[in-house]
Amino acid sequence: MREGDFTGPRKRRGVSRRAICCGLGPALLGVSGCTLKEEGYRYRLSIEVEVGGRRYVGQGVREFIAGEVIGLPNAWTVYHTGTLGDAIWIEAPGAPTLFILLRQAIYGTGDAWDPTPFLGRGKIGFYERFVDVPLPGPVRRRVAVPLRDLPTIVVFDDVTDKSTMRLVLPSEVASVLGGGARIVGAWIERTSDPVTRGIEAKLPCLAPLLADPNVRSRQVTVPGELTFNVPDFRRSPLG
Question: Is the pTM of this model over 0.85?
Answer without folding.
Answer: no
